[in-house]
Amino acid sequence: MSQFYGNGIALNEKVLDYLWGRQTVTLNNIVNVDTPGFKSQYLTFEEALGEKLRRASAAGRPARDVGRAIDGSRISLHTTWNESSRLDGNNVDMDQEQVQLVRTVLEYQYMVNSVSNDLSRLSSAARSF
Which helix (H) or strand (E) covers residue 43, if one does? Predict the structure, then answer.
């Protein structure tokens, strides 16, 4: 399927998976805002995915290598151990978590719209045959 649609939809699918994971981690932080000793967590994936894509697309590599780079990228889960502004050891900052949640929701909506637009264009092109 990815050969027919190219790497764009595969990339969008991977980013949607990552954003879903980021939203889950952020919601877990919010749920545990009152849990003594809880340390906030966060996901990273943008830098690692970007680096894999740069390496795969360098020097005229085929689209298949880019597809492998997309499939091979992974999420990194991190825990914030050092920061704590509360006496109970919890370091969840609700302002920061709410901003992160809104940012993730907006990015997710943007990516869903992008996939929808790609599929609409493909559908329109297929109807012309």
Answer: strand 41-44
Greatest pairwise CA separation for the chain in angstroms:
68
Cα 45–46–52 angle (5° rounding)?
90
Q: What is residue 85's DSSP assignment?
A: -
Task: Give the integer Cα–Cα distance in Å for 55 and 110.
Answer: 26
- pLDDT, tens digit, 9 for 90 and up, residues 31-58: 999 999 999 999 999 888 888 888 877 7
Q: What gap in Å lies between CA 12 and CA 31, rounded to an integer?
A: 28
H/E stretch holding 79 reads: strand 76-79
- Whole-number Å distance between alpha carbons of 108 and 91: 26
Give the pTM: 0.80
